[in-house]
Fold these 4 entries.
Entry 1:
Amino acid sequence: MPMLDAYIPEGALSAEAEQKLLARLTDVLLENEGADPTNETARSIAWVFLHRADVFVAGAPADEPRYRFVASVPEGQFNPDRRQAIVEAITEAVLDAEEGARPRDPMRVWVFPTEIADGTWGGGGRIVTLADIAGLVMGDPEKGREYADRTLGERRREAAPV
């Protein structure tokens, strides 16, 4: 159940470019969470929230658009490689969407890949765990539980003090 908060200034992109960007970002989000972007169930729970933002730099309106993206996935879905990959992919997708209208400056794009601790994601009026989400996407609750146990176990072993 990946979610992306996309902060894009009004008018920074053409309507068509923005629509293509949001579709591309859905794929990027799923790919870097480790899901198949062609899986219709996975796509149905990949949401992008578009926020309009006025951005100020050093106390004055920004001279060029600045973009901010917060990618949220269940705990265990990002590893260091996936975090780096999603930052790169979102940055490149945004700069491509500008279609050469501005200097290609990656410092105008900031990406925050975040994991939501298992047991703290709520949806449908209840807590939704990684096992629940994986079971839904896989079409098998038991496989979802096995995946979550393996993934969270590996992540917690990596994070444990030595």
Entry 2:
Amino acid sequence: MLRALRIASLSLLFSATLAMTAQTIPASEAPKHVGEQATVCGIVANKHVASQSRGKPTFLDIDKSYPNQSLTVVVWESDIGSVGSLPKSGQICAIGRIDQYRGGAQIVLHTAASWYVPKPQSAPAQAPLSSNRTYINSDGQQVHSPAYSPAGVPAGATALCGDGTYSFSQHRSGTCSHHGGVAKWL
């Protein structure tokens, strides 16, 4: 019992150390970091259990867009008690080694310390974006062009595009047209 407690404590310490030293990347970038330790954050797109599969894994698809630009978080049935209850929606960050999975990337979770729900940021009001480009829409209004937001969903975003950028389009027609289509309306 004492040995198991020591192992669990060391595992939590190791996971916490990895979280502090590993880089944090958006889920859309995970396939570019296969083989690396990282904290990968994104929006839950789908959660399901493969009850007919051996080991009954739970799959959590993060920022599902193209098959090559997504992250799948996997929890095997034997680890469910150690990992805890994963969210069905919202933001999540997974910590671990990124492995290749069906053309995309995956992280397998073994403990509760290997994932967390990021706390909402109180400041700044606008999350930093990868670009400050704008365009004039069909109504003659200036609108921010689709951009990546490593800090989560930016204020005013209306859709998550297939390439992982956020759109600020005010009309559904043409939204994310040069960014892989709409992965999720916000």
Entry 3:
Amino acid sequence: MFEQANLREPRNVLGDWVLRGAIAVVFVIFGAEKFSSDPGSSWAKLFEQIGAGQWFRYFTGVVEILGGVLALIPWTATAGLALLACTMAGAIVILVFVIGRPADCIFAAGILIALIAFWRSRRS
């Protein structure tokens, strides 16, 4: 009876690769978009509102690409997921307190929750 309580279901390796691949693709694409040279792009305008300078846009792009790549590699996936979760938490804080548009953080909050849920599922 107690033996069954300690048994864990084996992790689905293919599902793990698919989810990590999807996370990597999404964050590499969003990170690469931040390197647009168009000063009228939505990312340039958003980071202008933040007021930290355009270097912060490039830094965020590098962090997102790095986090996506790290999430793809099995032995660095935890570090990549943590980096991306911190990025999404930072986006939420900036949208709520710096820009003053709390409704805009729903997308970032959803991604943050999904990243945390995926990380927790990998731990078991």
Entry 4:
Amino acid sequence: MLITLTFRRAILAVLAASIAVVGGALLFQYVGGLAPCELCLYERWPYYIAIVAAAVLLAAGRWRVTGGALLTLVFIASTALAFYHVGVEQHWFAGPTACTGSGAAAGSIDDLRAQLLHQQPVQCDQPQWALVGVTLAAWNLVASSVLAALSCVALGLALKEPRL
């Protein structure tokens, strides 16, 4: 049996995937004990926005083109942020100073204390976990890319399908 992809089904898939990604991140954090770095926390925001936007689109049934465009832009931004995080992990890019291992040498005990107090407990450039050699940031890059494509398809469907 072949299922036809409609705007509503595409948005449902975006909603379900967004909930799954955020749920997985929270499970890794609270059940698995993996504390998120600063960039990991930033990478959750596009999913929070997508959950709200997709729920509103499904509930209201309006703003299909605007909603599809918003979700596409949210996941393009999410893909860019995830790519940046992967680049920080691979040392292609400099990460946020409070979140990476590259700190200046302390000139005194007071300077060292100040550095330690302002340093994040988890470093953005040191992955804590990987599956088949792929870090969580890289998996987020894959998920964000797929959801950007699906959101773009939803936008195309919103433009083609008759308004219900």
